[in-house]
Prior knowledge:
By secondary structure, the chain is an alpha+beta fold. The chain is built from 2 helices and 5 strands. The protein has one domain (about 5-65): N-terminal domain of TfIIb. Helices cover about 25% and strands about 25% of the residues. A hairpin with a 4-residue loop joins strand 1 (about 20) and strand 2 (about 25-30).
Amino acid sequence: MDPKLLEILVCPVSKTKLIYDKKSQExxxxxxxLAYPVRDGIPIxxxxxxxxxxxxxVETYRKQKR
Length: 66
């Protein structure tokens, strides 16, 4: 994921910054508790395509942001 692109992308639901998880190929919104897929290098920022994060996942990502 291009770091410059990641700087300008925001969650369409919460309008907050996203965290890129390279391992799972997802953009994470801890504010909306959603994970948006990245397919072939293209972020799919559609709420219908996102999966809901578990409370444990949200906590893990929030700790990483610090």
